[in-house]
Design goal:
heterotetramer, A: alpha/beta, 3-stranded mixed sheet, 12 strands, C: alpha/beta, 10 helices
Amino acid sequence: MSPSKVALLIDVIAGMLEGLGRVAVGASSPIPAAAAWLARERGGGRPEVSVLGSGAHSDMTDGGRELFDRAGQGRIDAFFLGGVQIDGSANINLIGTGPHPAADKRFPGSYGSAYLYFVVPRVILFRVEHTTRTLVEKVDFISAPGTSPPEVYRPGGPHALVTGRCVFRFDAARGRFRLASLHPGHSLDEVRDTTGFTFDAADDPPVTPAPSAETMALIRGPVAASLREVYPRFAARFLGNHRAV
Amino acid sequence: MSPSKVALLIDVIAGMLEGLGRVAVGASSPIPAAAAWLARERGGGRPEVSVLGSGAHSDMTDGGRELFDRAGQGRIDAFFLGGVQIDGSANINLIGTGPHPAADKRFPGSYGSAYLYFVVPRVILFRVEHTTRTLVEKVDFISAPGTSPPEVYRPGGPHALVTGRCVFRFDAARGRFRLASLHPGHSLDEVRDTTGFTFDAADDPPVTPAPSAETMALIRGPVAASLREVYPRFAARFLGNHRAV
Amino acid sequence: MTETLSLDRLAGRVADGAMLALPPDYSYVPMAAVYALVRRGVRDLHLLTVPQAGIAADLLIGAGCVATVETAAVSLGELGNAPRFAAAVEGGDVAIRDSTCPAIHAALQAAEKGVPFMPLRGLIGSDLLRVRPDWQVIDNPMADGGGDPIVVLPALRPDVALFHAPYADEHGNVWLGARRELVTMAHAARETLVTVEEVRPGGLLADETLAAGTLPALYVAGLAEAPQGAWPLGLTGCYEPDREHLAEYARLAASEEGFEEYCGENLIANEANVMKGLRAAE
Amino acid sequence: MTETLSLDRLAGRVADGAMLALPPDYSYVPMAAVYALVRRGVRDLHLLTVPQAGIAADLLIGAGCVATVETAAVSLGELGNAPRFAAAVEGGDVAIRDSTCPAIHAALQAAEKGVPFMPLRGLIGSDLLRVRPDWQVIDNPMADGGGDPIVVLPALRPDVALFHAPYADEHGNVWLGARRELVTMAHAARETLVTVEEVRPGGLLADETLAAGTLPALYVAGLAEAPQGAWPLGLTGCYEPDREHLAEYARLAASEEGFEEYCGENLIANEANVMKGLRAAE
């Protein structure tokens, strides 16, 4: 992925966090973490950001359950999830492909998805690989469902799906994704070909705007500084060693 | 109460703790605490003893719930409870006399009794005042019941009732107390007159044995040392300032 | 984000009618804030003691600040029964929701975890179940074939958790040491207000050893400096209880007139003491 | 009472068939003890990861020590999927009980509190419910009129909780800092075994600041000194992960033959390293 694509993704995700109070980011998620830090820079300290497994950046002192307890208390407004597979109903599969338990290919497991997807108001699905292998018609295993019947307690759920090609917004009422924007250089036909599920789209969808000069300065400045601390290899690879002037 | 009566009570309670692994003692309970420490001295470090609210003697680091969690885990073998009223079925009332909620005389409340009485295997009831006011036919309010129907989870319950006049053992099968021994100087008739409930007794019950010279040395030595640290006023009043030779 | 307030502004954040959670007498009791609450004349509190309380609850009840008290016990410890609490319950002047220590801990943990209830062993056959219609007995769903009754308690979510701590850092992180019932209180409550002996520079979370005993600022809505803020109770590691004053309280509070006398003498004096401590620290 | 043991004696206390709880990769992983378990050839473990795990679980699974793995995830983190775990699940060589992080935390808290189950929101509609027949959906008893389904999870009581910590005191109290998932593990487990970098004189509980991060000896059945006992993982505040070694593990463990090669080279070497560290400390 090019540094400019990385910056675009950081910028577009940061836009989804504007105005929120608190964002948590899972382990090994440099782009979502960078987006959260960028949103915080733009918001003058809001949202507050907790990055898991980040040593000095952690503000949890009650053990591994604290993230989930906080989410249950309503203290986390946004979180990020990925998926081995994501389908058109926003069901996500983090377990593997093929039958369960003896999968064709086994992945790590569901982590906290089966809980956080229900209780965090704004869950952003993030998966750079955008192919018919990752975006499927129906997931092989539902680690966490995209929607729930009305009697199920569910203050949270999917908000958007950000990939290397485009941004989808999730329409909870219809239970379907709608294409929100195409990243520069990608076409609607290409996205249809590489997406295993059907989705709604305008005939001529907007293009994801490139980050402004101001945003680029923030990414290269304070955001890169935080990234260097928590994800040094990622920062070196995609953001170089520039410093903001 | 005379120092010799205090030593007798410490000794007789300590005898009930012999062979146990762990004993917990509630706040403001100098005689049970002394009994637990005496048992530990005799047992070469067993039972281990946790005294609540004792500062340096506390070994709890998980907040106020830890005592109850430990009891639920089966890590506490004996505990002590008292009562504004105790009845012949070993029901205890820590709330007050008369109707509820507007009591004739309100006492502090049930504390942890409604739980600990169920899960601690050996609960020793301790109440120095032995009158028809404290030992009643039926308590006005059951903070915690002496027995439970078989379907109720209850690994614990009452073991004995120690008063200023005598020792009763609780017979769980019959759901009644049986007089185990009379303290020196007290008679069966006197105990019958001052007890509001009926109980089983031999015609000529044994006398609670006075502490041996060896036990007195332990009480005046290491037990008194612990008491002086946690209950300085009690120690000064009942154990004087003697040191073991 | 933690707001730094004066003691009286902090007390002002406890609304009339709020469910207010207070710590037990052995644990960081916010006495200066309690005096400030009485001064400001807060009304109709639902007072939750975690799980028991002493002079703090007795004062608030005696001063007419409390509509309902939910507690495992209110007592002055070695100084005997809590006189204003006892009188108010006997006279029907407060509604009493009798509880038991582990039930209060468990119900706060339910709120901490965002679940509507928590199971608890024991309780069956206690009259507490009779006077607590909000507690229910269900059949343990894990028992094969059923027939294993167990109590479930509704979650307790206080509007405000209030306590006093030795110190906070400049970001609003509060050092509580091993007093983890306060951590649970803060997690469970909508809003937590804390008084501290002092605010120290630096950051508690950056130090591995101190972080272990720290409540993160995330949970702390308001913070006020109140030197000697646990007086007349003690603060472990900082100062001992003022036993003479506590005995005087017990003596005076035995009667309504005596209680009025106590309040007259101490409510204003306490404010002045805190102010003096703050000036001395500057 | 805490028993002080050699590393191999400690590993010997984990019986074949035991339910063994291990911490996540970010939290005090007892790698030296895990190597010792592989050396001794423990069999048929029910491995519970709290709530996820990495190389420790992959090693035990690859070496054939595990019958069942109960986990929210097993992964080598930045180094990718856990190869022996994935191969064993794909091949049906271990039984997998898929879970989710908060379910493991909550089920351990149930055991900690001595209750048979714990409720948890979420989960309904996840296939996890389908593959976990031990999880049940009940009607929330607190919902007026019902119609609010909620999942209840049976308590998880490990036979053994095993972890590595920076140090213990001479009484067996163990300093864990803010790693409180280990506290819950220890409370929930029947028996807890701990390796430490070193045993220090004095008492952790007597110091207010250290007590906040201390697991009392009451819970610690066995304790062994194992310098560098988290290697090749890091120990926060003590040493960094050996990233080169971990990458080598990931490379070799991708195949069964490579895994055998890794074990041949490291199982004995690791024991020798620990012994060298102990001798150096004397």
